[in-house]
DUF6533 domain-containing protein (Suillus placidus), 56 residues
Amino acid sequence: MSATTIGFQTAQYFTVGAMAAVIFDYCLTISQEVQLIWGKKWASLGLLSPSLVMPP
């Protein structure tokens, strides 16, 4: 294998690992998000909160 192929494969592994970590974190915290953010009445900060925690 060439160095370029190994570097590309390493980047793919890193991407898959990072996505797995994000999905795992989301699965662990979704119940708290629903309870603490979505379970309350909407206010100006409540409308802004999801945009602060969600990536663009």
